[in-house]
Write a structure and sequence with these properties.
Elements: E1 9-10, E2 24-28, E3 33-35, E4 44-48, H1 49-74, H2 89-98, E5 104-106, H3 112-117, H4 122-129, H5 161-175, E6 181-186, H6 193-205, E7 209-215, E8 218-219, E9 222-223, H7 224-227, E10 242-246, H8 250-268, E11 271-276, H9 295-304, H10 307-317, H11 323-346, E12 367-369, E13 376-378
Helix pairs in contact: 1-2, 1-4, 1-10, 1-11, 2-8, 4-11, 5-6
């Protein structure tokens, strides 16, 4: 399963108690596995103090957003489906650090972390979950459908986002804009036929798509080794190069993502990535997550491989921050999410006429049919 992550840092001098905090530190990277991929990858990476503080803050914020969502769901203030990202924060934060906000992202229904890293506020994310007008989609999309101009969802149909991601990447190649698309899916969706069709077309057209399997080891209630004849997901592209990286180490995810996407930007075509990670909650809120794995397993991962604990250890061992400083940041994140939770509860619900809006572009003033022939509304801004 997941390797235990023990960072080694290049440092020297007196203890942190008697010297100024360092501006940067260099860490050994965990090894990654390659499939038909001729690429030079770094063995070490430098983390600056500014970068480390940002990664710690972003991952802590996402974790607290998900903790709040869990509570809101249990108090029946969030309805429908809810899939939490807790434990997988290093994937979205690390990959975002390896690309730019101009690049495209499309993911599945576990999308709250990606919504945050793409620039949506905790207020708008949690209000979307409660179905309120202050939500990022005015409460119409809910948990599985959050968007920005470069985040193409949040998609609720298993695996359906993968061929769409290939199409987005084709658009980048067609426009020759130098951008890439990261199309994310889980280990459960990796067995879908449309995923392999997308690999094939992307390879034929050499489109810059990073097909990324977020392997949290359980597709709903079935472990990856029981569901897949070949659980080495990074090899599934056949002729498409593949890479497997440690998804609990934000620095490793950042470095390998950057090098791989640079290789893609040079016109070399798609790559299949497997990012090994873990989810702490069940598949969704209807799944307690303990019928197919033990509580001891979950606690062991929390104790030895947690991505936030790891980056915190890097910061302290690398003399980039003090424990008190990181504790203060954690407290600030808690305050922000507490306020966002209050906003999500108090934001007004949508007016009925909003049902007829944001259906098509350039349709203002058009009469829109409702659910039966007697119901109509007017499409308005």
């Amino acid at each position: 399963m997941l390797r235990q992550l023990v960072p080694r840092v290049a440092k020297g001098g007196s203890s942190i108690a008697t010297r100024t905090l360092a501006s940067e530190a260099t860490f050994d990277l965990p090894t990654c596995e390659l499939h038909k991929f001729d690429i030079d990858l770094p063995k070490t990476a430098t983390l600056t103090r500014e970068e480390g503080l940002k990664y710690f803050k972003d991952m802590s914020m996402i974790r607290k957003i998900e903790t709040s969502a869990n509570s809101l769901y249990k108090s029946k203030e969030i309805r429908g489906f809810l899939h939490l990202y807790s434990g997988q924060e290093a994937v979205c934060v690390g990959m975002e650090a390896g690309i730019t906000l101009e690049d495209s992202i499309i993911t599945a229904y576990r999308d709250h972390g990606w919504a945050y890293t793409r620039g949506l506020s905790p207020d708008s994310i949690l209000a979307e979950l409660t179905g309120r007008s202050g939500g990022c989609q005015k409460g119409k999309g809910g948990s599985m459908h959050m968007y920005t101009e470069t985040l193409f969802g949040g998609n609720g149909i298993v695996g359906a986002q993968v061929p769409v991601g290939a199409g987005i990447a084709f658009g980048h190649k067609f426009k020759n804009d130098g951008k890439v698309c990261i199309a994310l899916y889980g280990d459960g969706a990796a067995n879908q036929g449309q995923v392999f069709e997308a690999y094939n077309l992307a390879a034929l057209f050499k489109v810059p798509c990073l097909f990324t399997c977020e392997n949290n080891h359980y597709g709903m209630g079935t472990s990856d080794v029981r569901a897949a004849a070949n659980p080495h997901y990074y090899t599934r592209g056949d002729a498409v190069p593949g890479i497997k990286m440690d998804g609990m180490n934000v620095l490793a995810v950042r470095e390998f993502t950057k090098h791989v996407t640079d290789w893609m930007r040079a016109g070399n075509g798609p790559v299949v990535a497997e990012v090994e990670t873990y989810r702490y909650y069940g598949h969704s809120m209807s799944d307690p997550g303990t019928s197919y794995r033990t509580r001891d397993e979950v606690q062991e991962v929390r104790k030895t491989k947690d991505p936030i604990t790891l980056v915190k250890s890097m910061m302290i061992e690398g003399e980039l921050a003090t424990e008190a400083e990181l504790k203060e940041i954690d407290g600030e994140c808690r305050k922000v999410v507490d306020e966002a939770t209050k906003f999500a509860r108090e934001s007004p619900e949508l007016d009925t006429h909003e049902m007829f809006n944001t259906i098509y572009t350039d349709m203002d003033g058009t009469r829109i049919r409702g659910s039966d022939s007697m119901t109509y509304g007017i499409h308005s801004p």
